């Protein structure tokens, strides 16, 4: 059952699930989310604004008595791509993650608050082909850097997490070997 209250200052929709749980959705006059609450969902509030490079959305996670101090502020550029995310830390500071995109709008570099840079490469079809942590800070995927989700043939993977491949040309044979930590091990489905 869905009940809509049309005369409220903001549009409010109440949904009752078969198990009796409720979701109350409140929207601003322009249709953007203002607040989501109820017994079936975590209470969440939303704020919107602009910055010199585009727009931002702040998602605030609420407790029964109000704010929890947990939030995420997501900045997008004029094309709608996420370029920065901010979150509070346990010390009261703000931690930021930055994103860089290529000409096709795909994320090619992500730099987190610790300065760890994750690089992503794409194949000719525009699909993610490889992801690696930039260990030497040169903003390039190099041999020996931990690989996240390589698009290697499963036959090239060893049980220890090594990738080994040979590339042959008329002039030379190049053997590529790389290793990644177990937590970055790709699925071989």
Overall description:
The structure is a single chain. The protein has no helices and 14 strands. Among the domains are: 1-41; 44-115. The protein is mainly beta and 189 residues long. A twelve-stranded antiparallel sheet has the order 1-2-3-4-5-6-7-8-9-10-11-12, with no helix packed on it.
Query: Count the strands?
Result: 14
Q: Give the DSSP E fraction (strand runs of 2 or more residues).
A: over 45%
Order of helices and strands: EEEEEEEEEEEEEE
| Secondary-structure class | mainly beta
Number of helices: 0
Helix % is under 10%
Q: What is the 3D shape?
A: elongated
**Major pleated sheet:** 12 strands, antiparallel
Rg of Cα set: 23 Å
Poorly predicted spans: 152-189
Provide the descriptors you would attach to this structure in a database record.
189 residues; mainly beta; twelve-stranded antiparallel β-sheet; 14 strands; disordered C terminus
Write the layout of secondary structure elements.
Elements: E1 2-5, E2 11-16, E3 22-27, E4 33-37, E5 44-51, E6 54-63, E7 66-77, E8 82-88, E9 94-101, E10 107-111, E11 117-122, E12 128-133, E13 162-168, E14 173-179
Antiparallel strand pairs: 1-2, 2-3, 3-4, 4-5, 5-6, 6-7, 7-8, 8-9, 9-10, 10-11, 11-12, 13-14
What would you say about this model in short?
The protein is mostly beta strands. The chain is built from no helices and 14 strands.
